[in-house]
Structures are given as structure tokens and as C-alpha cells.
Amino acid sequence: MSNISNSERAEVLTEALPYIKRYNGKTVVVKYGGGAMVSDVLKQQVMEDVVLLWLIGVKVVLVHGGGPEISELMVKLDKKPEFYNGLRVTDAETADIVQMVLAGKVNKTLVKLLELKGGSAVGLSGVDGKLILAEALDEKLGYVGKIKKINIKPVSDLLEAGYIPVISTIGCGSDGSTFNINGDTAAAHIAGALHAERLIMMTDTAGILRDKDDPTSLIPKISPEQAEELKKSGVISGGMIPKVDCCTEALSMGVSNVVIMDGRIPHSILMELLTDEGAGTMVAGKTK
User: What is the Cα Rg of the chain in Å?
Assistant: First the structure.
């Protein structure tokens, strides 16, 4: 920003004004992970974006993962990470490690960063207030959970009190078991329970591409029906399929729209919400 003139700064603020009005008092859920989480510089910028939105009256909920940190600690403990169909095999010991990393180190680090940037944040896990009730997804995966119910009151109470909820994606079973929950799935269900204005899914790609090898082939907006056609044609494939499925699930639960975008781009959240250009691919019920 030091390279632009005061008049250019004024133009940026003027462009943002209608978006500030639109999102003031609305709920936005951000699923945070991927490359933006690994880089310390990008982590700082994401926290700045979240605090700025909070300061202009947006009710921001930050849902985070922490896969690389989990694998790193497992290796230090001489435990080899294992995956089945893209999901982490989670025995009882691994479930303890997941809880330690997500609800402990990662969650509290993000809360501290938000506080240092001027925000007021409170960390939660899916165990707190039985926020995420879960059951086993597949016996081959161990303590990997599928969501049975979201008890959203702890989150809505924090929002009403003026805090930024920071949620780690572990769930609790009816018998007190701890479950490892897919971050995208948890974010979709939490956004749905809040009837959020927008769910932002931060990824390691620009969004949905017509050609996965061509970043300029970004599809700016699609409907759930168009997404199904792109899956059938192979345009949406691999790891993007479950992410898009989470988007359409969020829409079916009452979220206004969902955006899949590249979290590696500095201040991509602000670009998406507060500029004419936007960022990534929007999945919404209607297209132009």
C-alpha cells in the first residue's frame, strides 16, 4: 500500500463501501487450511483479513484444519501417518494426537494471532458444548467421524457477544469418543447451522478450472447443477470432488453462496468480499 497515492487509497475504500454495507451484521464462515496455513507470512495476512472484517461488523467464524502439523507430530512420535481414500486412518493414539494438535497448538496459535492483530477471539473444538456430535464413518478409518448433529449455540453465543469463534474440527461421540472430522465437511455444516451469508473455502488452487493445468481457465461462477455436469465430464475430479460436494451440501443447508479460492494469494479474503473483482469460483443456487 506504500506505493499507491492517497487518491488511489480513497478509490479502494470507495469501491469497498457497498460491500461493507452488504456484509455488515452478516455471518461469514472461513474454512482455513492448505498453503495459507503453512506459510507464516500468509497466516499473518489471513488473520489481518479476518480482524478487518470483524472490525467493520462482519460476524466471522474461522474453522481450521491442521493436517501437516498432525503428520509432523506423528513422525516425531515415531508413528507413521496412514491414509485410506484420502482420509487419515485414526486409531485411538492418533485421535489423541489430532486433539492435541488441533484443539491445542493450532487453535491457540490462531487465537493469539487474532488477538495480536486487534481482534477478540475465542477458541473452540467440536467437543466444547457438544458442538460437533459424530459417529464412526468407516471401521477401516478408526476414529474418523461423520457428523450427526451440530449444536450451534456455543458459536452463536460467541458471535452475539462480539467474539471471533475459532473452531478446530474434532467431534465427540455419544460415548465420549473423540473423532477426527474432515475440515471442509465441518465448515459446511457449521455454516449451514448459522445460515451464513457466505462460506469461503481456502484451498491450494485458484478455484474450479476447466483445465487443471491452466490457471487462466478459472470458472468464476457455477450452480450445483452445473457442478454435477462438470463432475460427470471430468472437469471436476480428484480432490476437488469432495470439496465441491461440501459446497453444494452447504447450499442445501441454507448458506447463501460458497466460494472456493486460492488461500496462497495475499489478502484473498478481502479481495473476494470487498472488491468488484472477487476471487475464486462461486458456487451458488443461480448463475447469470
Answer: 19
CA dihedral 121, 125, 129, 135 (to 10 degrees): 160
Q: Is residue 11 part of a domain?
A: no
Q: What is the spatial order of strands in the sheet that 121-125 belongs to?
A: 121-125, 164-168, 59-64, 27-32, 198-203, 257-262, 281-284, 221-222
Question: Which structural domain range is residue 47 located in?
Answer: 22-284
Alpha-carbon gap, residue 104 to 111, rounded angstroms = 11
Q: How crowded is residue 133: how many other Cβ atoms within 10 Å of its Cβ?
A: 18
What backbone torsions phi and psi does residue 61 show, to the nearest 5 degrees? Answer: -120, 125
224, 255, 248: which is closest to 61 by C-alpha?
A: 255
Whichever domain contains 90, its CATH number is 3.40.1160.10
> Are 87 and 182 within 8 A, CB to CB?
yes
Confidence at residue 91, expressed as pLDDT on a 0 to 100 scale: 92
Let me know if residue 15 belongs to a domain.
no
- How far apart CA 242 and CA 256 sit, in angstroms, is 19
Pairing of strands 27-32, 59-64: parallel
Question: Strand locations in the chain, DSSP E?
Answer: 27-32, 59-64, 83-84, 87-88, 121-125, 132-136, 145-150, 164-168, 170-172, 178-180, 198-203, 221-222, 257-262, 281-284
Query: Is 6 part of a structural domain of the chain?
Result: no
Contact 111, 103 (CB under 8 A): no
Q: Is 68 left (phi over 0), alpha (psi -120 to 50) or beta?
A: alpha
Look at residue 130 in the predicted model and tell me its pLDDT: 94
Domain count for the chain: 1
Ranges of the chain whose pLDDT falls below 70: 1-6, 8-9, 34-36, 276-278, 286-288
CA distances from 242 to 104, 123, 228 (A): 27, 26, 12
